Sequence to fold (148 residues):
Amino acid sequence: MSTPEQAAPAAPVRFDTKIAVLLREDLEPWQRLNVTAFLVSGLGTAAPELVGEPYRDADDTAYLPMLRQPVLVLEGGKETIGLAHRRALSRSLPLAVFTSDLFTTGNDRDNRAAVRAVPTADLDLVGLAVHGPRNAVDKVLKGARMHP
Fold:
């Protein structure tokens, strides 16, 4: 019988899908954090299977569940984000967007109205989040670079 110290290490988990956030490179640090948080929240609500089980510590204190796989954060210029947006739409991948207008609104209703008022091609995107098969997400994000 083996002891926990002798047990074989668990094999690394490799996901068939990828979650990624692409941020416009000219955002202020506070904006990068805010946009990332908003975008990722959209993916978890649209694809409940992305959310893992709740957490508990050794004292049995309960904590909320989180996404069950890593989130890559990348950056690129305005052109890179526009191209990624078009690619994601053409592949029908689940997509969340954040436009520059959302920095001036203060609630969900006004956020949705700000996006609704602008045609797809004219959205001033400052960030997007995408989820899908690894190779499809890689193609969507071609030209973006890892966030520093």
Summary: The first helix runs from residue 29 to 46.
